[in-house]
Amino acid sequence: MTKTAQAIALSMTLAMAAPAFAAIPVGVDAPDFTTQASLAGRPFVFHLADALRRGPVVLYFYPAAFTSGCTVEAHDFAEATDAFAKLGATVIGVSVDSIETLNRFSATECRNKFAVASAGAALISAYKVKLPILSRSNRTSFVIAPTGKILFEYSAFDPSGHVAKTMAAVKAWRAAHPA
Predict the structure, then answer these.
(1) From CA 128, how far away is CA 57, in angstroms rounded?
(2) Rg (CA), the chain
(3) Which of 76, 89, 116, 147 is positioned for an S-S bond with 84, CB 3.0–4.6 A?
């Protein structure tokens, strides 16, 4: 296990002993941001407000590319990306990884299906998803309405529920807002 993976494991263990995550709540405006991102190994500039003009955004934070849980989550979102797109939603993953790392992660683990973006401390702080001790995010998924309001928030270290729960939130939004 690498030092980074050990540090993340320790931080997650400490966080699980702490109270529940305190991510920004449903109903508030999502902090807008612009950052470097990668899709299919190609870097580009991602701006949340631009993505919201096309429909809801599934914004999910994860601790580190190429770690076991984050790889599982990327595979799960890759498999569901087409279904999200049919509902008009954009998926983007966010971590503190460098754009070089994200170029590889987007091509291999995200399977060229959705973008991943690089987050600095300010973005992680704005969404209130910082892991204790480390300057990394926890595993938190948001669904953001085209209006910029947070529709759904889910924080859990286990990656298995994030896709199903965000998909249910996007489906509920679509049912209330037919195309």
Answers:
(1) 18
(2) 15
(3) 89
Q: What percent of the chain has pLDDT over 90?
A: 83
Query: In whole angstroms, what separates CA 45 from the centre of its chain?
Result: 16
Class (C level, CATH) for 28-176: alpha beta
Phi first, then psi, for residue 37 (nearest 5°) are -140, 170
If you search the block for the tokens 């998803």, which residue do you land on? 129
- Which residue in the block uniquely carries the two structure tokens 């709540």? 25
Could you report the per-residue pLDDT of 119-131, keeping only the tens digit for each? 999 999 999 999 8
Q: Where are the domains of the chain?
A: 28-176
pTM summary value: 0.88
> 61 with 134: CB under 8 angstroms?
no
| DSSP one-letter string for 18-75 | SPPP-PPPTTSBPPP-EEEEEETTEEEEEEHHHHHTTS-EEEEE-S-TTSHHHHHHHH
Give 27-67 pLDDT, tens digit per residue.
999 999 999 999 999 999 999 999 999 999 999 999 999 99
Which residues have a Cβ under 8 Å from the Cβ of 83 and sit 6 or more positions away?
167
Three-point CA angle 76, 177, 126, nearest 5°: 60
Q: Could you give the CA distance from residue 137 to residue 133 in angstroms, rounded to a whole number? A: 11
> With 90 as the cut, is the pLDDT of residue 2 above it?
no
